Every structure is written in structure tokens, then in C-alpha cells.
Amino acid sequence: MDKKERMEEWFLRYAKDIKNFLIYYTNQSDVEDFVQECFLRAWKGFDRFAEKSDPKTWLIAIARNVAIDAARKKALWRYLPAPLWKKIKSNAPALETSLILQEEMQELYRAIHQLKRSYRDVVILRGIMELSVEETARILDWSETKVSVTFHRALAKLRTQKKGE
Amino acid sequence: MDEKQHELFGKMRRFPKYDMTFNEQQRLLANIKREIAHAERQKKRTSIIISMAAALFVLFFPIYIFTQTNIEFQQKEKAQDWTLSPTFDLLNKDGSVVYHNAVRGVKGKIGFLENGMKIVAGDQESVAKMFWYVWGEEQQLIGKTLRATATHKETGESFLLNETTLQAPLYGENASALTSFQPFPKEGIWKLDIHIDGKYFASIVIDVLPEYIQTKQATFYLTSDELYTGLKQNIMLKVDGKRQEDKLTVKAVYNRTHQLSFTYKKSAVYYTTSRQPVTLYEGKLTLDRAGEWKITVLNETVKVHVKK
């Protein structure tokens, strides 16, 4: 199979997972540009993909970098004068919370987005995406122990946050 | 995992999973294919340009040889150039500005992201996260080793500042790397000589600020030449470790007879890139006389010279 066929196969197989991940990770519903960017980067970095590793975790790791870069760029907008910033902010797409029907779920969702980055990483991958400890470890380039411990702490943190309300 | 956490875990798993419609999938795939084709065409175009350049080179090589003796002399002069390298914009692939005036180096060749951050002698933090951006032929950059040595203008002292492997570009450059520099041991003018894949690539000249005012465990985020009489602004004080005290007292003594004391309030605890906890305090250091002062924090004293 040549490079193009491989990429196409990966796309058909994993684009859904990438989209899902990006929606939760970036907290917005329109993530098409990010999905596109992710596969483009994968194409460019194809030679660096080690045959042994799993394309799914490799692609999610790239998607995560895409999202982080985008967030960093967005952070620069904060230096704009306030009125301009407000306008842009109101145009920014937010996740349609109606998709998450139960109020209880909404509450949890908000709490997840208040977590610090390492907790949020592991909660989205392990919890929402239902990936295994091994897969999560590969995406974040952590040890499996670190994934388990951090996930445990994140859950504990979510519980105390709820209590505090 | 206890029962409550299990419940939480279960709830997470019930978050909606977003599907991709067939149409959406096909449209995205077509977009990606188009983008890839576009990128490939551009690659081809650059390789045509390169082969044309090679032809020109062969054509003009004899002339070059002829004038080389002169040029060589001039280049030697240039290598000793100690003028500070400028900062410039980092552009994205589409030509839009990613960072305004934030990359220092040789425009169109190589630079590092400075982004308004001061590089301070002896300070690990200001050089802990450095981005290199390199422009050139991607195949000759990506995956290759970048080696930067730094030479001090005043003393001639030099050391290995950084060695890293170049990665794929992030924005409009052709290769990039995220790495850490070794801290600069001395203030002053430093020249960074950069080699890529064993070949000399470019030099960048920078100004390194004098050390922060610091004792063994506490650092004021203020370099010694920023300390003036009547300094009004708040100063951050970093103390190693996770400290319990909500307030710290900083004492400043002039000439053994005149003493001032300042209260620093705790503002945050964070972890450095090497995962060491540090506590941040905030307060003032408004000294009323120029000259030699002794500043004491947590029973440690440092001598400073205050300018008028």
C-alpha cells in the first residue's frame, strides 16, 4: 500500500475518533479545520511514523498538538483592545450544550474543562474517549503508571470540585 | 477506585460520541487530498528552482573562484561582527503574522522565539523552553542535528549552548525544534554559532542581562541593573520549595544604620519544568538611597548596588 492509500484508509477509520477527541479537547463543535490540519501534518510527518506504533494513537497525539497550537494562537487575541475581543468572543463557537442533555452531565462537563491540562488530557482520553491506559500513555508520551495515577487524581479532584459547589 | 469514582467514570463514558456523516467524511477527505496535492506541487516547484540554481551555480562558478580571494577576506570580517541580531515577525504558511517581532536571529535563515522574554545570566527558567525556527530546504533540515555554541565577547569563553534535532515546521518556517538552552554563565554580548548537520549555518548575536538579585533559595525577578532608588513597581520573589508562610519579610540595610523592611505576600505555588515546586511572593523594593545595600530574605543576605 502506498502512502496515499494508507492515509486514506487511516482517514476513513479514525477521522471519527479524531473529530470526537477535538470536540471535547477544544470545547467547540466546529473542528473540521483541526481535523484537516491533523491529517495534513500526519502526511508531512509520515516518514517519522514508526511502523510499530499504532496509527490511532499517533494521530490523536498529532490532533492534540494541533489543538494546543490553536489555543496558543488564540491566547494572543487577549492582547486586543477589549471591545474588539468581546466581538470575536461572541462569535466563537461553543459546544452546543444541548447535545449534552442531562443537566448533571453538563455540570460534569464544565468541571472537566476547569481542570488543569494534564488532568483534562487524561480525563478526555481515558474517560470520554474510553481509551486504554496503554493507548493513553502512548498519546501523552507518559508511563502507564503516570496515566493511572493522574487519572485517579483527576477523578478525585472532580469529586471535590462537585462537593465544593 | 472507590464507588463514587466508578460512578464518575461511568458518567464520562456516557458522554455523547459524535459521528461523521458520509457527506462530511467525503468532503473532508476531498479537502485533505487537495491540500496534500497543493503541498506536493509546491515541493516540486522548489526542487525545480533548486535545480535551476544549481545550473546557474555551475555557470558562474569560475567567476566566483576568480573573485573568491576578496570575498573570503570580507567574510572573515563578517564572522567577527558583534552587532546585535534583530527581531522579526514569524509568519504562518499563508503569510499571516503568528508572532509579531518576536523571533531573534537572521531573517530568512534562522531565529529563536524570544517573545519579549529577557535572557538573564545564570537563569535556567528564561531559557528552559526555546523554539528554533529554520528556513531553507526541508530535506536538508528536518531530522538533522542543530548544534549551537555560544562565545562571550568580553572574555572569549565559549560553551555548548544547545544540541537538538530539527522537526517538522509549525508555521511558515521549514523546520523547527522545541528545546532548552544551557543557561548563560555571564552577562554581556554573546555570539551563537549555529551548525546544522555538521556544517556552519549562521550566527546570532544577543545581549544577556546581568543575573537576578538572588540568595541561595530566593530570587527577585529583577536584574541588578534594574535596581534604582524609588523603584515603585511590584516585584516577584521566587522561593524554592512549597512554602507555608503567607508573608515574608525582606529587610534592606544601608550602611549598617539605615534599615527598611518590606512585606511580600504569597501569590502562587507552581512547578518548574524540572518539576521542582517553587513559591512566588510579591512585594516592593523601594529603596531611598543610592549605593551599597544588604538585602536579607529568609536569613540569607545578598549585597546589591543601587543606582540613582
TrEMBL record, chain A:
Gene Ontology BP annotations: DNA-templated transcription initiation
Domain (RNA polymerase sigma-70 region): residue spans on this chain: 11-75
Domain of life of the organism encoding this protein: Bacteria
Molecular function GO labels: DNA binding; sigma factor activity
Alphabetical UniProt keywords: Sigma factor, Transcription, Transcription regulation
Ranges of residues in domain RNA polymerase sigma factor 70 region 4 type: 106-158
SUPFAM superfamilies cross-referenced by the UniProt entry: Sigma2 domain of RNA polymerase sigma factors (SSF88946), Sigma3 and sigma4 domains of RNA polymerase sigma factors (SSF88659)
Assigned protein family: Belongs to the sigma-70 factor family. ECF subfamily.
Record protein name field: RNA polymerase sigma-70 factor (ECF subfamily)
Species for this entry: [Anoxybacillus] calidus
Automatic annotation (TrEMBL), chain B:
Keywords from the named record: Coiled coil, Membrane, Transmembrane, Transmembrane helix
UniProt KW Transmembrane keyword: yes
Coiled-coil positions: 22-49
Gene3D superfamilies on file: 2.60.40.3830
Positions of transmembrane segments: 48-66
Protein name: DUF4871 domain-containing protein
Organism name: [Anoxybacillus] calidus
